[in-house]
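Example: DUF11 domain-containing protein.
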Amino acid sequence: MSRKINWSAALIFISSPVFAVSPYFPETPTIDSPADGAIDVPLNPELSGSPMLEKGGSSANLVFDSAEWRLTDANERFVITGGTRGDETTNLDSIPESTYIYDIPNGFNFNGVYTTRLEVTNTGVVQLFSADDSVAATVEMIPGALSDLRPSDDKAPILIVAPEAANDLTVALAVQWTYLSDAVAGDIVLQAAFTSENGVGLFTIPSDLSEPLFNSTDSTISIDWNGPAYVAGDSLAGWKTTLTGGDSPASNFGLIFNPDNEGNISPTGSGQNGSLGLYEWPEYISATGSDVTLPDPGLTLEPATDYAVQVRYTALEGASERKSDWSEPNYFTTGLDTSYSFPAPATADIQASVAKTFEFEVSNNGSDDGQALVEIRLPFNAFEVLEGRFSEHYNATSDAAIKNCDDTTDFDAGNTYLHCEITLEAGATATVAFLATFYDEGANAFEYRVCETLLDRCDDASYETASFSVAAAPETSAPEEEPEETDEDSGSSSGGGSMFWLTILGVTLFRRQKPTSRIL
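Written out as structure tokens, the predicted fold is:
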């Protein structure tokens, strides 16, 4: 896919984690390679990160163990970060709390408030801030009670930008926390979704509502925005009753809150009937190495595709395992192997004012499929010299065209550009035909080129020149002139015509005359 992402049209976030200082945890690493914004990156790129450091400036307490890498398609329009965690005996109270601050470049209109920042903690709190730094909304989803509760290895917290609609609910953004617990089978997933309808959705799994997580009275799920806070029983146990009306299990459940005219909020639906559901995170391409640099990760990425890459480090403190937070993502674009041959077309028998077709045989000699832009540049503005209909004198066609080639004709003060964008598989050849008309006799020329569009390589593509001569336009015999009429001929003709019409009129009047009655 081409790196032609309209970043200003999407909610893309740049995060900066803020940590409570705590020793014996690896500091969040940064990525050296692939560099952020790099293009033409190999399909199996070297992965390299910063040296391992310890939080709080401590040293010699941790021993580097491994580096975990993950990559995903950057076009998913999301940024994801994971919470720091320790080994199996570490719970939420024992890990350094991390707060991730996300700037929203274009802002987000939430419940009539222009919001520009989102803050998320790895322990289950999210706050949406307005442009004046006031809090527009707060959602707390803090599961307590379970002493062995800890953030999941690779899924907490997750910030998703999800502009698409699902189950008749359009989500502007969602924050997700995923935890592990020996007391609960499987992941514990909590989500807070800010909807484009200026509401907030709260969702949670697992499906078995009798699990200890949902019977805990010291956990918190609440929401507060522009008015009274809405707290459903102050706990997941209270939410179990609110959401289901009892203790019956549901596949997954949640509520959507919408403000009324006075800014108050109330629940408007339950997920027990399947109308609401959690939003899934994307699948990752992963690699692990025993050093901060992984020269051959064994990846097979797609060509001309945007990716986001992150890394985190695992270290050992004695027998205990410590993991850093995931790094901020670096965005890069993989390369593309296309090589086009583009011989000059035949230019014989060119006559002024007569449309001429120029055919180009374009071949892709590379190993990857491509999208080639084939173009000729005429050294004049066709509209200024045109004699007749434009399409009959200037156009472009190809059986391999992505769209109608005539829709991409351009002009400037002294040039006319005829384009045709085609798809061309590796090893394939396609024909592109341009129709052009020249009006000047003598020496003439036009320029032509082909370039790859998938990686915006046309800016650096140069033109070649096709020179030729334009012969004079073919002579056409003048039409025979009719003899001029004399006054005598005109009068005779006029008189004869008058007599003719009078005769017709007389017949008509005769036929239309009514009979008269006779008195005997």
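The first helix runs from residue 212 to 215.
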